[in-house]
Amino acid sequence: MLRASVCTRESAWAALNTPSASVNPANPSGTITNAAKVLRLEGASAVYACATHAVFSPPAVERLSSGVFNEVIVTNTIPLPPHKCFPQLTVLSVANLLGENIWKIYNMTPGEHIVTHQ
Predict the structure, then answer these.
(1) Could you tell me which of 77, 84, 44 has the C-alpha nearest to residue 63?
(2) For residue 6, what are the contacts with CB-CB under 8 A and spacing of at least 6?
(3) Among the listed residues 41, 50, 62, the one whose alpha carbon sits nearest the alpha carbon of residue 3
(4) How far apart are alpha carbons 52 and 42 in whole angstroms?
(5) What b/e readout covers 67-104, taking b as 16+ CB neighbours within 10 angstroms?
(6) Which CATH architecture best describes the domain 2-92?
(7) What does the pLDDT read at residue 100?
(8) 3-state secondary structure string, 31-88?
(9) Taking Cα atoms as reference points, which of 68, 28, 6, 27 lies closest to residue 16?
(10) What is the CA radius of gyration of the chain?
(11) pLDDT in tens, 65-113
(12) What is the pLDDT of residues 10-45, one digit of tens each?
C-alpha cells in the first residue's frame, strides 16, 4: 500500500501502472520503490510502504531504506533478523490480534464473528 500526502489518486494509480511496475510476487520491493519514486516526482511530500510479511529478500533492504519512503511498516508475522532492520522500518506486533481471536474461537457462540472491526 502506498499513501501519498500531496499527489492525486490518479498519480498514484499511474505510478503503480507504469511499465516498470510489473510486480514480481517473489520480491515486490522494486515495484513499490519505483512507484514511490514516481509519487515523489509528482510532488508527494510523504510516501509510506506497508506490508504484512517482512520477507525482505535481496535487494529489498537496500531499496526500501534508500530514502524514498518516510516509513516502511510491517508486522512481526515472521522473524526479522537484525541485519534486515533499517531506520525507516516500523514493526507492528500481531500478538493481540492472534490472542483475541484464539480467545474468541475458544469461547465462540454460534454466529459470532471471529474478526471484528473496531
Answers:
(1) 84
(2) 43, 44, 45, 46
(3) 50
(4) 27
(5) ebbeebbbbeeeebeeebeeebbeeeeeeeeeeeeeee
(6) 3-Layer(aba) Sandwich (3.40)
(7) 86
(8) HHHHHHHHHHHCCCCCEEEEEEECCCCCCHHHHHCCCCCCEEEEEECCCCCHHHCCCC
(9) 28
(10) 17
(11) 999 999 999 999 999 999 999 999 999 999 998 988 888 888 875 555 6
(12) 555 555 555 444 455 556 788 899 999 999 999 999
Q: What's the pLDDT band for 5 if we cut at 50, 70, 90?
A: very low
C-alpha count within 13 angstroms, C-beta hemisphere, residue 66: 15
Instruction: Spell out the domain ranges in the chain.
Output: 2-92
Q: Which three cell numbers stand for residue 101?
A: 481471536
- For residue 25, what are the CA distances in angstroms to 31, 46, 58, 108? 10, 25, 14, 36
6 band by pLDDT with thresholds 50, 70 and 90: very low
